[in-house]
Amino acid sequence: MTTQWHADTPIYIQLYQQVITRILDGYILEGEALPSVRKVAADYQVNPLTISKAYQMLQDEGIVEKQRGKGLFVKQGVLEFVLKRERETFLSQQWPEILQQISRLKLSPEQLLAPSSEKNTEHNND
Question: pTM of this prediction?
Answer without folding.
Answer: 0.76
